[in-house]
Design goal:
5-stranded antiparallel β-sheet, elongated
Length: 84
């Protein structure tokens, strides 16, 4: 029997903000990992740096919509013991 491949998904949100000093708009990234609350993440390389960090953990980019990046990675296969 062939096991069906399963995926887990992640969303990266781009948040624009100003620090109150009247300086330029900056970007902050929030990552929503499976089963976890959103976590802020920063990278001096911007979105590319954030996506590269996630790529190092096995995530691959599958879609981009405005201020959101959608990623997926393979879920580990669970072995089932045979019941006789």
């Amino acid at each position: 029997m062939c096991a069906m491949h399963k995926w887990e998904h992640c969303v990266v949100y781009t948040i624009e903000y100003r620090d109150g000093s009247g300086g330029p708009t900056r970007e902050l990234y929030e990552v929503q990992l499976p089963g976890a609350a959103r976590t802020s993440i920063a990278s001096p390389l911007g979105a590319v740096g954030v996506l590269n960090q996630l790529g190092d953990d096995g995530w691959e980019l599958v879609d981009v919509e405005a201020d959101r990046y959608f990623l997926k990675r393979s879920k580990p296969f669970k072995t089932q013991s045979a019941v006789l």
